[in-house]
Amino acid sequence: MRIRLATIALYVSIFLLPWQTRLIFETLTISGEPTQFGVLAISAVEVLIVTAYLLRGQAHHSPEAGKILKALYMVLGIGFFSLTWGRYSDVGWFQMIHLLSAVFLFSLVLDRRTNIKKVVLAFTSGLLIPSGLGIYQAIVGTSGASTLLGLASKDAATLGVAVVETDPGRMLRAYGSFPHPNIFGGYLAASLIMLAWVSRFIRERWQLIALSVPVVILSSTLIMTFSRGAWLAMIASGLVLIGLMLLQRKMPPSRAIPLFTLGLVTILITLGVFHNQLISRFNPELSIEATSIEERASQYASFNDVFFSSSLIGVGPGAYVFQLVDIDPGHPAWSYQPIHNAILLIMAEIGILGWLVALRWVVLMDKQSHVAWRTPNGAFALALGTTILVVSLFDHYPWSLWSGIALSALIFAVITRWSLDT
Fold this sequence. Notes:
With 422 residues, this protein is mainly α. The chain is 66% helix and 8% strand. It has 17 helices and six strands. The protein has helices spanning 2-15, 44-56, 63-85, 89-110, 116-126, 128-140, 181-198, 205-224, 228-248, 257-273, 275-281, 287-307, 320-327, 342-371, 376-394, 397-400, 402-420; strands at residues 22-30, 33-43, 142-143, 154-155, 163-166, 169-172. It has a two-stranded antiparallel ribbon. A two-stranded antiparallel sheet has the order 3-4. The protein has a two-stranded antiparallel sheet with strand order 5-6. A hairpin with a 2-residue loop joins strand 1 (22-30) and strand 2 (33-43). Helix 3 runs antiparallel to helix 14 (342-371). The longest helix has 30 residues, at 342-371. The chain is globular, with a radius of gyration of 21 Å. 49% of the residues are buried.
């Protein structure tokens, strides 16, 4: 009974990953204004994950999975070491709580008693309601707030909200249930690769029809996030998957081809409907896009100031933004953001030492994927790995925010299971 409850709690937590319900203890301020990177909170999903971990008891890991998990424990240890020497203990402790919850999620998915197909289906199914909300937001241009669901109110006319500007006006980008459309886009890109993997198991007509619905909804919503990083991740992972299939001289299952076609047609139709917004999103002459490019460029310019202030052990988990404030105080809270590169952000926060330990963990997983690259599971593992790699190169949320940390943990766990279950 205890194991069954643990399994249910795990699948429910994965289904609810998109939702931001949380208990906020304190919100730190910068220049007298609250900052989202100073929110000290525990997510309801984290509580579910910890509950599942404690109920399940001793994990059942293969020797290879156990080795990878031990490498992850070392990353966690380095994080606590960096926190001990850091100056921003409040935000650091909550960052480490998020990382610990993510490690528990990673361990649970790696457990041989966990059905990886059910994990994938729980994750993709959990994105359907947020996708419906995201489509509504993009079309109507507004959405209400909900404390229970962790939703903030959004309106295209409000300054600071993520929008796309065109001649007719401002269009609200699809947030869904997430803090930012870019995070939503990352979840959707990963979910579409996972759905492609599920399509291999189609045996009946009703299964084909059942998978068609999420393919259409998630594909169209991905476009409405207008997340260029997520689009690039989707394109890159798709090309990797196609390239590996060609190298293996294998064609997708015949029943999966209609789903691929349906997804592509859905994307093209959605792009056709929002073609003006698409053009605007890649127009650097527009003020909103020029500002975005300028902000990201300036973040790379200031990275050295943060990194070299404590290059060996880092400035501490979650402390990047507050170190920026110390270096260059007096600006509005919104102007202080982590560098939009999770790989460099990790290096700055836990130092070269922590970055090298984290790299060893990633290499151990990648090695398993490359060993299995000639198998369908190995090909999908490499494609999904491409998704998180591209997202990490162009955004900070895979490390800076709980929703991104949870996505990273789930993706890496699924990659590992796919690679080992060949």
